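Re: weekly structure request thread

Next one in the queue (312 aa):
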Amino acid sequence: MYFKTICFIVISLFIGTVAFSQKLNWIPFEWVGDSVSGKYFDKLALTIPVSIDGLPHKFKMQFDLGAETTVIYGKSIDKYLDKYPKLKNKLDSTTTFIINGQENPMFNNVGLSLGNVSFGKRDIGYFKDYGEPIPTDSISTSTQKLIGTIAPDLFKDKYLIIDYPNQRISVAKKLPRKLVKVDFQVCQIEDGRITIPLTINGIVENLMFDTGSSIFPLITSEENANQISADNIIDSLSVNSWGNNVTVYGKKIIPEVKFGKTILQPSIVYYIKDEMFTEFFKQQNIWGITGNAYFLNNIVIIDYKNSRFGIK
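Done, posted below.
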């Protein structure tokens, strides 16, 4: 499957008041489960139903805040481009973006909706030679087809609210009153990617927050992992990272991990024995990556305008 598990390149709460609901347009998301190295994970990836240019088909995209550009997978959309030349004609090779070191064209002025919420006309990347091909006899069936990745370029200068317990997100220009007093911490945002502060073993470290990294509470270099963990490796997994298979190893975390004043649940730290990933962490000036796993009982609020990250 073409779900990303690592990307390079959140208190259970029910809000039942009418006033709160009226202020936010909620977009549902679904957890996708699958087996990795013979182990089944029920929360491997997040997908969101989408509509592309009003086409009469059921699509979905992975929700991935570790990406930079919202993209449509070339191999997954190609059969639809043959059927809908108007969409195909929106491909513009003079407008490009870089992913995995390769230049790719963009779709220009494409209508995009997440759930029932319109995001207007957008420029969306065309990730050529990527994705799972959809057979011709399947393109008109009623099942949702995974055709791309939703990235943070859609949320610039807005609040993104991720309600994990109720499996929904919302994008807002202003926060509802009930979420204003969340314990926010200053974060760093560059090219849409979010770096948040976690206190690990009494030291504040910067970690990328990546919703595409669903099964790993922490992933870092081998050196960093060894400094906060027991000696024995207690887990290993072979995972897909944007089309490449890598092996990650897990050890039990010994010290406390906190976000602000909130103590996060004891867990496992994972690492990769590969200098390329270690170098990536150094280049990004981060200790490692964290994702959904620590925040499954929380509402997470990301303030893209003021560079803040909060949990409730």
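The domain at 173-311 is CATH 2.40.70.10 (Cathepsin D, subunit A; domain 1). The chain has two domains: 18-159, 173-311.
Next request, please.
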